[in-house]
Each structure stands twice: as C-alpha cells, then as structure tokens.
Sequence to fold (245 residues):
Amino acid sequence: MRTLHVAPGDSAGGSLGQAIRGAGRDEEVLRCRDDLSCGPIESDDPSARAAWWARFYDVPEFEGDFETFWSRVTTTDDRLVVWFGRHSAGELAFFLAMADRLGDRSYDIVDTTGPRYPAVSIIPTDRLRALLGTERPITGQEREEACRQWCRLRAENAPFRVVTPTGLVSAPVDHFDPLLLERATPEWRKIARVVGDTMGYNFEPYMQVGDMMLLARVVALVDEGKLLADGDPWDMHSCRVRLPG
Fold:
C-alpha cells in the first residue's frame, strides 16, 4: 500500500517532501493550502472558503485546489499520515478539520508539538527526516475530542481561531489589533516591519496568524483612524504607518 503524507500548508509540504526524498523514500505529499485558523468555517463547501480568500488574493485556482485536496484525502485508498503541530493555530485547525472529515477511517498522525518548533512548517528538513517512521495510529479518544472541538468552532464560526494552553478557541476580528498598535510608533514604519514584529515578538510559544490576516487588520485600523498611512496600506512593503498625533 502506498503512503500519502498530508501536510498542513505549502511550506510544511515543501519541507516534508525534501525530507522524504532525502531519506530515499518513494512517498507522496499532499498539501492543504487552506489556513483554517481564520475566516468562515461553518460550511464544508470549498467554494465558500475560496470566495473568502479571494478577498485577499487574486488566485482563481483556490477553489479547485481546495476541492481536489478534500476529494483526494477522503477517497484515497492510500495509507494516510497526517502531520501537524498543536502550537500552531493553522496546523491545529487543519488537524481538527481532518479528524472531522475522515470520521472513522483509520490513519496515522505525526504530532510534532514541542517547545522548540511550534509548527511543522518551521522544522528543519533533517529533523523532519528523523521523524519519518514515528507516526502512530490516532486513538479513538483523540478522534472524538478533535471532532467535538471542531464542531464547537464551526458553530461559533468566528473570524479567528487561536491557540491557548487548553487548545484552539474562537477569537473576534479585532483580537490582534492591540498587538499591532503596540508595534506601531509615532514615527513612520513600514507595514511589513509592524506585521513582522507582531508575528515574531508576541506569539511565542505559539504561531497564531499569518501575515495576510495581520495586513488586513492594519488596513482596518487605518480605515478606523487608529493608524495613519503614507501610501496604499494594502502594499505592505512600500506603505508606512504611524500612530496619530
């Protein structure tokens, strides 16, 4: 039976693919391109997620990618190995959604959670290679708990889902605004610096949100007058922002 590794994102999938090739294995990696830690999750329809992401990216193939991913993962006869880290909001949301979709089907997991690397996406290739073969079957209790959590999160359908010591919880649309405002100053700073500092300084030991969602919140803060912009705030690398006053 062929083995299909399921990765939580493009970056994680790329690193995992390198690790597998480096180990001399002929095994496939399937990447989930959807970050389920943000946006609406009430519907299972991939087109709903694609339409939401289209507000931020001009990538028309999103819908096809999402449909292909879920169709493959739920219908394949391959042995599935699901990779994720519980300290990453996106990867934990991915795992909970996978558990819900796969139901009673048997599959293996590699839970990379640890103090040094909160997410599969940032684990060095040599470390990932060392983790090959450490997968284990998901337990019934883990499956049931994951499905229960995902059902709750879907019912809440919040703008964000963030990691806490007790797991993934819903968060409002302005959840990250105080962190962004803390990294802004009365002097002009490029938005990329504000966003990067927010991600790097405030999220240890967890990885909570991607740069595009933080950029969208910067734009909202500009619209609300809480930040002033010098340029188009959607242009993260050229536009500068500062605090009013």
Notes: The chain has nine helices and ten strands. The mean pLDDT is 92. Strands lie at 3-7, 28-31, 79-84, 108-111, 136-137, 160-164, 167-171, 189-190, 228-230, 240-242.
